[in-house]
Specification:
The chain is α+β, with helices and mostly antiparallel strands. It folds into four domains: about 190 residues, no CATH class; about 180 residues, no CATH class; about 220 residues, no CATH class; about 130 residues, Beta Barrel (Cathepsin D, subunit A, domain 1), CATH 2.40.70. About 55% of the residues lie in helices and about 15% in strands. The protein is built from 20 helices and 26 strands. The strands form six sheets. Strands 5, 6, 7, 8, 9, 10, 11, 12 and 13 form a nine-stranded mixed beta sheet that branches. A five-stranded mixed beta sheet has the order 18-19-24-20-23. The two termini are about 35 Å apart.
Length: about 775
Amino acid sequence: MIALAAVRGRAASLAGTFAGLTLGVALIAMTLLVHVSAMPRTPQRLAAAPVLVHGPVAPDAAGVGSGVRPWAGPDAVALAQRLAGLPEVAAAVPDRSFYAQLVVDGAPVGDPADAAAGHGWSSAALGAYPLVGGVAPDADGEVAADAATGLAVGARTTLLTARGPAEVTVTGLVGGPGVYLSEDAAARLSPGVPVIGLLLRPGADPAAVAVAAREAAPGAVVATGEQRAALEPVQQAKTRWLGTQLLIAMASLAVFVTVFVVASTFALNVAQRRRELGLLRTVGATPRQIRRIVLGEALLVGAAGGIAGALLGTAAAGPAGRLLVRWGLADPGLEVRLQLLPVLAAVAVGVGVALVGAYAAGRRAAKVPPMAALRDAAVEARAMGPGRWLLGGGAFVLGGFLAARTATAAADERVNAALFAAMALTAAAALLAPVLLPPLVRLVSWPLRAARGAGPMLVRAESLTAARRTAATAAPVIATVGFAVLLSGMVSTMREAYPAGQAAKLAGITVAVPDRTPGLTDAALAAGGRAVLPSRVYAEGLSIAAFGTATGPVSVAAGVADALGVRIGDTVTVVFADGLTERLTIARVTPDGQVDDDLILPRDLVRRHDPSALAAAVVGVDAAALAGLPGVEVLDAKAYADRESGEDSRLLWLFATVLIALSVGYTGIAVVNTMAMSAEGRRPDLAVLRGAGTTPRQALRHAAAEVLLVVALGAGLGLAVTVLPLLGMAAGLEEEVGVPVALRLHWPVTAATVLATAVVAVVASLTVTRRAWRHQAR
């Protein structure tokens, strides 16, 4: 009851805490709903087959991603015939997928990221794509095209496959995406068959058919319903992974900064209520009861903010999903669905964050002595207790350790190490702010001692006397500026480091790259130069990325060698993309991280088993030899390096922009809340200034100067805590790319963040001061 009454009586001062919790829970609920709705889905082109029979799903050696081990062509045909003879099965269709892309008006059409857009004609039935014009392809040189391409039946055009360009005739138009060839042509381009789709008779039970199919195809995987999502395309899975990383970052930032807001709010709350808490102690309240009162207030505010945030997050999930699709971070078919469990989880997290943020304040409140009720001094009590010293020092040591580790971390761990280091150092700066800020205030305001007028000295004295209020205002500024400097600095440094390293390796060399296609064909490889053919093989239950080079003997990365249990001189049996097996003798084991290739094979061997493999680039080509070849662009070393890093840079800036915007929003809430809470305590100060003849303009100027000083000091600390992680990242990048890497700070982003924070803080301070001044005049 006391906690409820306290919340009612301090509703205005707790409004910022409520707003921060509402925003945090809204972000968590939104991200959880979008994430759950973006789970793997059955590929649309296979959705018309209620039962899919496919080879075993093998995880890759790194534990992320997977592949479906294919059957050899003759084995797949024999298996399809057995499955077609099952009761209630209308047809069993071996699905062959390979690279095929039509050229219209001199340019390739279709999704440049889809390397499996070609299929045999029978596969059109698996997606229920009807023939809307002409006839199905039945011979070499004939294709059925997507009606959306604008081609007409009988048109002559160019078809790009891994073999190169070839002239074909459009014999039919299909009401769905893809390019469809005759069965014989498809079998040559994709000898292996990873999946067989079963089309059922009307009224057939997919579950019963699945049971019969498992008996007819021992060792195969029979999938129905949502189980078919295991065949999701690799590109779609990658897109979902990228979107998930942004969602995780947003949710993590929401939790981290919300704890900041709640902790600083309740710390200031307790500091302002020392007399009230002392009165409670005087009438017999125990420390445990005082702690329960503070935590009870946090529970009530957390529950209210959690419910409001859940409603807001549910409403925002749909637009957020569409925004991710527009940014290229989610599958275009994403539909956000309302589900109760993610929403309840978000509310629970909000309540938990409120309790965690208020815990330290509750412990401090429990230590208020009864004699505090008799004190009239407005000077704050000791700002730092042993617990805060311990936590602040521990966070600083942890941040320093993580910053040093950033320099030696692996490439895929470096960003996370820098982020965690910055979080730890930011927490340390916020915890130690009551100790760090007074010396900084004295240092910055020292030249003002000789200034004329009492204004500068009042600003200095107020900041030093109200150390806890100053720290509570500076804490969110430290976090916001720190994140802005860190994220923008990381992106700026990486944007220069990776292209510079790549350009240095390829100095003076021309590179052929795909132009609106997923890769380069044999026609581009025939012009000379160095190229690698990527493929995938299967061994010992693992899916392994294989790369064919012109010369290389069989070599395997150390991690993959350990997973396979092989060493130099051992042999291993692998299944290739065409479903055939070969025994390979390991000639070399390369250290992990030295190359990106799990398994290196002779290029002729890869081409023999994977007729549709495409090269990502050809290095050292003659531009004249590739003139007029569709789907190919020739670049110099610098242009190639910039192109390779272009998409990564776009995504990194997208991530950074979203997170910085969230940080600034939280800062606004925290600063406004701090100003609102301090208004009551500053009324006696304003009364003294009013009695001394201070005008309203002077009072507002004094308030603005004080908050600007705090923002400047908070921004300085925020900048300082990011230097070590960024230096560690620069050192790690220099080791990785092999060229000197200088630390790059993005000053426009930093300046904009500091300016936005300062504007919010000044507006909040002026609004609160004006209201308090008018209250004094009544």
